[in-house]
Structure formats: structure tokens, C-alpha cells
């Protein structure tokens, strides 16, 4: 399976790098952990329209996701918990999170969920 360049749309993604200690405004550790991410990277990838009820449930019926992204690049590093900017610049808060990854012989499908970040 090959991805048609015509169908690809520009996104930015940032890989999850781990958890770090949260710090308050005075510089003290709060005891909470926060997720940290790498710098955003640009990528052209095929993104589905918003998910509807007539779609095949590729990830099962219990996973809550809004769209899918598909690539034929088997070396694509995107994984679960990766954050995605789609339709917004990477200077604004991200608007999607990768919820699941389905690898096949020639392609990778990502289930992404829209999120509201302040």
C-alpha cells in the first residue's frame, strides 16, 4: 500500500518522552508528575474525515477516537500518547492525542482523539 501524496495533509507531532516532577510558581516540587514531550516535528500524512457510525471499527468498539491517520512509512516513530497539531500551528496548544496504533504489513493506522488544551 502506498500513500498518495495528494491525500496527505500537514501535521505536527511531538513524541512522549516521559514524566517529570511538576514545579509550582515559586520553584518548589509539588509531588505531582507531568508528561513531557519532544519538540514538534512536521509530517505529511493521510488523515480521515471525522469518524462516523458507518465506518469499520478498526480499533474495536470501546476505543474512543475521532479520526485516523494512515501512513505507508513503516519507520514512522509516532506512538500512543504522542500529541498532534492538525489544522493549527505548532505554536498553539495541540488539539489531538494518539490513542492507539495498528500496524499491518505495509501500513500503520493511528487512532487520534481531539482534545481541548488551555
Tell me what the structure shows:
The protein has 118 residues and is mainly β. It contains no helices and 8 strands. It has strands spanning 8-14, 16-23, 29-37, 41-47, 67-71, 83-86, 96-103, 108-114. The strands form 2 sheets. Strands 1-4-5-8-7-6 form a 6-stranded antiparallel β-barrel. The protein has a two-stranded antiparallel ribbon with strand order 2-3. Strand 7 and strand 8 (108-114) form a beta hairpin. The protein is elongated. The mean pLDDT is 89.
- Which oligomerization state do the chains in this entry correspond to? single chain
Number of helices: 0
- The portion of residues forming beta strands comes to over 45%
Strand tally is 8
Tell me the series of helices and strands, N- to C-terminal: EEEEEEEE
User: How many strands, what sense, and barrel or not for the largest sheet?
Assistant: 6 strands, antiparallel, barrel
- Indicate the radius of gyration in whole angstroms: 16 Å
C-alpha termini separation: 38 Å
The average pLDDT value, as a whole number, equals 89
Quick one: overall form?
A: elongated
Helix share, percent: under 10%
Low-confidence stretches: none
Strand order of the largest sheet: 1-4-5-8-7-6
Structural class: mainly beta
Amino acid at each position: 500500500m502506498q500513500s498518495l501524496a495528494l491525500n496527505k495533509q500537514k501535521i505536527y507531532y511531538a513524541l512522549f518522552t516521559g514524566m517529570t516532577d511538576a514545579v509550582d510558581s515559586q520553584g518548589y516540587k509539588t509531588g505531582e508528575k507531568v508528561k513531557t514531550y519532544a519538540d514538534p516535528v512536521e509530517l505529511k500524512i493521510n488523515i480521515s474525515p471525522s469518524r462516523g457510525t458507518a465506518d469499520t471499527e478498526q480499533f474495536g468498539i470501546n476505543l474512543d477516537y475521532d479520526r485516523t491517520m494512515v501512513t505507508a512509512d513503516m519507520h514512522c516513530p509516532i506512538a500512543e500518547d504522542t500529541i498532534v497539531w492538525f489544522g493549527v500551528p505548532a505554536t498553539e496548544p495541540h488539539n489531538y492525542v494518539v490513542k492507539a496504533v495498528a500496524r499491518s504489513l505495509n501500513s500503520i493506522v493511528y487512532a487520534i482523539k481531539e482534545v481541548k488544551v488551555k
